Amino acid sequence: MKLKTARYVIILIIILAVLMIIGASIGAASLPITSVVKIISSKIPILKNFINMQGIDLQDIKIILDIRLPRVLMAVLVGIALSSSGVIFQGIFRNPMADPYILGVSAGAAFGATIGLIFAKGTKLLNFSLTSIFAFAGAIGVTFLIYNISKVKGKISVITLLLSGVALSSLLSSLISLMMIFKTHDLAKVYFWIMGGLSSASWANLMVIAPTIIIIIIVSYFFMTDLNILSLGEERASQLGVQTEKVKKILLILASFIAAAAVSVSGIIGFVGLITPHIMRLIVGPDHKILYPTATISGGIVMLFSDTIARMILTPREIPVGIITSIIGVPFFMYLLLKSKKQVF
To answer: Are the C-beta atoms of residues 18 and 33 closer than 8 Å to each other?
Structure first.
């Protein structure tokens, strides 16, 4: 890792660590930051022997370790997943408006989750809810469907991909609404899932989903040089020895799996994968070797910040975090549309 990249990454990790501690201290029962630091540090092998836990209530320890810390970590994990997939999608299609939400991945997850919530509620497989499994399957299925629709003479058409993503998202939304009409007693659960949230975060879910997301993110990083070359244009990339269609297919699969894994546990959380890569591109530049790790960490920061706000606004109640990210993301998306209007028209 280059010195410049390492410097950005270290700064972002420090910001993320501070925000994690603050996020863990905020809730219906507000806890001192010093207590949060002690409780978390007491579980770190190197530090636990130096931590004095006297005076810290057992109830506070339970709140931090069993409720808030899993949620904080899940927020970070979902954020880095959505942002990293956003970087890849935008790089593949050379379009700043590409992200899992726009391309229909999230709609596929919502459709799968709705089926799971209505027809397989409460059922688990390997300690993982069938709702999340159905959501994952729906996201992957829609991705491959859109990919095949968008292929023109063996190549992916960006315009067709974006349009088919929007069209399929609309169709799936209609089907979800239809199922909700016939199953009105499940309306609240489905609606809350579609809005996106992390209230169901647990250590069990983290243990299942974290390895998948982290491994795929690491594997994807090794394709960032190819993604840089692809940004020069497919013809130029082919001349430089990049197997453009093969690389695009691999990256599309990896990004779709990352996004599907994230939305399967969090519901639909839009625009994190859209705004974070674009903001970091303005700060660190277009080099994906720098952009990918910095945008990935920044996604965790954005997501954790949004989830903390969602928990604070109506304490002790909470609102779906997807509402917060949409309020932030929609104006930014409109800005991108206006900025690219000359190219579109």
So the answer is: no
Task: Round to whole Å and give the CA distance between 271 and 28.
Answer: 28
CA-closest candidate to residue 102, choices 143, 57, 144, 153: 143
pTM for the full predicted model: 0.87
Rg (CA), the chain: 21
Q: Which neighbouring-strand residues pair with 152?
A: 155
Query: For residue 78, how many other CB atoms are within 10 A of its CB?
Result: 31
- Quick: pLDDT tens for 232-241: 877 788 888 8
Q: What is the pLDDT of residue 76?
A: 95
State how far the Cα of 332 lies from the Cα of 334, in Å rounded to an integer: 5
> E-assigned strands of 23-179?
124-125, 128-129, 151-152, 155-156
**Tokens of residue 32, six digits:** 């001192």
Given a contact cutoff of 8 angstroms between Cβ atoms, the answer to whether 299 and 82 are in contact is: yes
Q: What are the tens digits of pLDDT across the range 285-303?
A: 889 999 999 999 999 999 9
The whole-angstrom separation of Cα 68 and Cα 36 is 10
- Dist CA 302 CA 81 (whole Å): 12
3-class SS of residue 152: strand
Rounded alpha-carbon distances, angstroms, from residue 267 to 169, 172, 187, 200, 324: 15, 15, 15, 10, 14
Q: d(Cα 161, Cα 168) in Å, to the nearest integer?
A: 10
Q: Which two tokens stand for residue 178?
A: 């239809």
Contact between 282 and 157 (Cβ < 8 Å):
no
Rounded Cα gap, residues 63 and 24, in angstroms: 9
DSSP sequence for 182-218: HTGGGHHHHHHHHH---TT--HHHHHHHHHHHHHHHH
Alpha carbons 314 and 327: distance in angstroms, whole number: 16
